[in-house]
Specification:
Layout (H helix, E strand, L loop, with lengths): L1 H16 L23 H5 L12 E3 L5 E3 L2 E3 L4 E3 L45 H12 L9 H21 L5 H18 L3 H20 L18 H12 L6 H9 L8 H5 L1 H15 L12 E4 L14 E6 L6 H16 L1 H7 L9 H5 L3 H4 L5 H13 L5 E4 H6 L11 H13 L2 E4 L14 E6 L10 H17 L7 H12 L6 H15 L8 H5 L4 H15 L7 H13 L6 H11 L35 H14 L14 H9 L8 H10 L4 E2 L1 H10 L4 H16 L4 E2 L4 E3 L1 H8 L2
Helix pairs in contact: 4-5, 4-6, 5-6, 6-7, 8-10, 8-11, 10-11, 18-19, 18-20, 18-22, 18-25, 19-20, 22-24, 22-25
Length: about 750
């Protein structure tokens, strides 16, 4: 009696999850795990139709035509007849089409509402048979076909390859190739059904191994199953490389990680499958240029296959004289670590494309990819941008309006440039092989929507990390550019002095010099931004302020003459920087008179001002190009922090009082009711849940599963612009997103 109760419950669940359309509708089974609802073959035997057909089952080739009533089946690849036993020699072959059994052409069950579990042709209803025979008579390519009928057809192909070919040797080479071609065709059409796709992948993989053993060469099949678990192809290939003591190829290493039954890939690796696969293989070749070698283990390889058809239960495994390295933990642990680092590299990209309003192929998304990975991912919009930049830079650094650059984005152009947008622009330009100044990551400044920027050849490169010398030089250049532009005219001698500061610093690398030259060019062509400098300079002592003043005076004296108007502007600048403006004249005298006067120097007036102070000679030498070492030691570290543009320190923008209250409360969970809070707290304890586990949690809280998932995902979108729960089988929880929510 128990089996009958279980069967009734199963039918009710199955019916609620599957086709509910009218008999005229044709559509595929939306339940991607159809086979998971099957109970036992004996349950279906209760529906078995009695047949008096004594004709032996026969395999029909595509060249033959079979007529059953009004149906004319031309494409073959089916068993027809009344007698064909299952592998256990007890039941009838599930796929066997018995021509004597009834079928109802007046009411075909296209939706499969009456189909049982592990369907067999002799067990399904006359309405099911009519719909199935109609599909067999067609081109068998309607993607909306109920997946149970496709499975029934697949059972026959499975038997033909595993029993008639592998065990009995009754299949020719040409037919085998045709059968594999048919499987691949079905995979393309019906792969949206996860269960069917998994079974057909495993069959193709297993047949490949069988034929390898017979020295029959077939194109290699997929190494990675759509579900967890190693394919036969993977296990055999891994065993082959290890047995020959050959390094593991990158695709095989990737399959080892992706298919490992005890390893769960995080959201970026699942959401960005193509990008993750490419990046993993790229990083694998970088970390193991000669490939990872694994020592053979003693455990011998067993290739197992789990048939989709209940008629093939008990199908034996294949024992091979090869090691089974798929059981080893040490080598795959290294690969898992590599996968984790790749996942981290793709986190920003994954988070961006996880929001429904963002395009996977947009320039903004492309900017978030690692530079070397971007070279492997085609993007027409990016190629257009790269072509435009190439047309701008002919020989040297070039100044371009920010507006012109943004025009290349079309409708994707940002409407403002805050820190995020500035990082996106610099990332994109770096991917073209050029650099941008200002680069927010290195120059502590960002371009203005109505301003300009400088493009320079070579860029900063992947591993660029600015040195202290770079940061110090950048600060000095900023100050120097401010002084040089005081009189609204920048003299070439002032520019030469500032350039010489870059060239004469032997602590700078060539990349840093290129970057600083571009930064200087941008500074000299951009209005000086002095906001916030005065308040920041109030924290430094007098000795450090004196060192700052020497920098300003050095640039002012570069052209050998200072007009009274320049002195007044310097005084204003001193005041703005929190320095004593009365020190300007004495600093000028000090900077010029303390230098040795070469005999060949020509006397030139330096100051003609109301103070009647005049210097007879000023000569610029290399000593004037640097700050006194003692003063430099005291002041350079201070300069690194104080001369950062104020607009880099952006406050979060809160649009209304409700948002202010939400942020200040620091209690994001309060926006969920108690039941959903409870569910959320339980979900974030693990990354992976089965649908049944989620249902049990919701039942205890008296919540509907679909509604609860939608409620929490909507709440997640409101706060971090991304869904927390990724529905499917299994159901994934974005734990990284949960950590971000916890920090709000």
């Amino acid at each position: 009696m128990e089996w009958l109760i279980l069967f009734i419950i199963g039918v009710i669940i199955y019916s609620s999850l599957n086709k509910k359309g009218k008999k005229a509708s044709r559509r595929k089974d939306v339940d991607s795990d159809l086979v998971d609802f099957r109970i036992t073959a004996t349950t279906n035997n209760s529906r078995r139709s009695e047949s008096k057909n004594k004709q032996s089952g026969k395999w029909v080739m595509p060249s033959e035509v079979v007529k059953i009533g009004s149906y004319e089946i031309k494409n073959g690849f089916i068993y027809v007849g009344g007698q064909l036993k299952s592998l256990d020699n007890y039941n009838t072959e599930s796929s066997l089409v018995d021509q004597t059994l009834k079928f109802n052409t007046k009411s075909p069950d296209y939706g499969g509402d009456q189909m049982g579990y592990w369907p067999g042709y002799s067990e399904i209803s006359p309405e099911n048979r009519a719909a199935y025979l109609e599909w067999l008579s067609s081109e068998r390519n309607d993607p909306e076909t109920y997946i149970g009928y496709v499975f029934l057809y697949f059972y026959g192909l499975e038997r033909r390859l595993l029993i008639d070919d592998h065990q009995k040797g009754q299949v020719s080479d040409s037919e085998r190739i045709a059968l594999l071609k048919e499987l691949k065709r079905l995979k393309v059409i019906y792969s949206d059904n996860r269960s069917f796709n998994g079974y057909i992948t495993n069959l193709l993989s297993h047949v490949w191994v069988i034929n390898q053993q017979k020295n029959i060469k077939l194109p290699i099949q997929n190494l990675i199953s759509e579900k967890k678990g190693f394919t036969s192809t993977f296990k055999y290939s891994l065993a082959f490389y290890v047995s020959k003591e050959k390094p593991i190829p990158e695709k095989l290493a990737l399959a080892w990680v992706r298919s490992h039954p005890e390893y769960n890939l995080k959201t970026p690796a699942r959401r960005c499958k193509k990008e993750f696969n490419l990046l993993f293989q790229l990083r694998y070749k970088q970390k193991y240029p000669n490939g990872l070698k694994v020592k053979p283990n003693k455990t011998k390889l067993q290739i197992e296959y789990y048939p989709a058809s209940s008629s093939l239960r008990g199908y034996p495994s294949i024992s091979l004289d090869l090691p089974d390295p798929s059981r080893l933990k040490a080598p795959v642990k290294k690969l898992m670590g590599l996968a984790e680092s790749c996942t981290a590299e793709l986190e920003a990209f994954s988070r961006f494309i996880g929001r429904p309003e963002n395009s996977h192929i947009s320039l903004t998304a492309f900017a978030l990819l690692p530079n070397d990975l971007a070279n492997l991912v085609p993007n027409p919009q990016f190629q257009h941008l790269k072509k435009w930049i190439n047309s701008q830079i002919l020989e040297s650094d070039v100044i371009v309006p920010v507006e012109s650059l943004l025009e290349q984005f079309g409708g994707e152009a940002p409407i403002k440039i805050n820190k995020k947008e500035a990082e996106m622009l610099s990332n994109l330009i770096e991917k073209t092989g050029y650099g941008m100044a200002p680069d927010i990551s290195y120059h502590q400044a960002k371009p203005d929507m109505n301003g300009k920027l400088v493009l320079f050849l070579g860029g900063h490169g992947k591993d660029f990390s600015p040195s202290h010398a770079f940061m110090q030089a950048g600060t000095i250049l900023r100050l120097g550019a401010m002084v040089a532009s005081i009189d609204n005219h920048i003299d070439e001698s002032e520019v030469s002095l500032l350039k010489s500061i870059i060239e004469n610093d032997n602590q700078l690398t060539e990349t840093e010099r290129r970057s600083l030259h571009a930064y200087l060019l941008w500074r000299l062509n951009t209005p000086a931004n002095m906001a916030g400098l005065k308040s920041r300079l109030e924290s430094i002592n007098n000795r450090e302020k004196t060192a700052v003043s020497h920098i300003l005076i050095s640039v002012a004296l570069a052209d050998g003459n200072i007009e009274p108007s320049e002195i007044k502007q310097l005084e204003k600048l001193y005041t703005s920087l929190g320095l004593d403006k009365s020190m300007v004249v004495s600093d000028i005298h000090s900077s010029s008179s303390q230098k040795e006067i070469p005999s060949q120097s020509k006397k030139v007036p330096v100051i003609e001002a109301e103070t009647d102070v005049q210097t007879s000679v000023f000569s610029l030498n290399r000593e004037l190009l640097k700050i006194h070492e003692e003063e430099t030691h005291d002041v350079k570290s201070v300069l690194e922090s104080i001369f950062i543009d104020d607009n880099l320190h952006e406050e979060p923008q809160i649009e209304d009082e409700e948002s202010i209250e939400m942020v200040s409360s620091n209690d994001i969970l309060s926006n969920l009711d108690d039941k959903h809070q409870n569910l959320y707290k339980q979900l974030i304890t693990r990354e992976e849940w089965s649908p049944d586990e989620i249902k049990n949690l919701c039942d205890k809280l008296q919540l509907m599963v679909d509604g609860a998932i939608e409620e929490i995902n909507d709440w997640s979108f409101d706060h971090v612009d991304a869904p927390l729960i990724e529905d499917g089988t299994p159901i994934f929880i974005d734990l990284e997103l949960a950590e971000e929510i916890a920090e709000l």
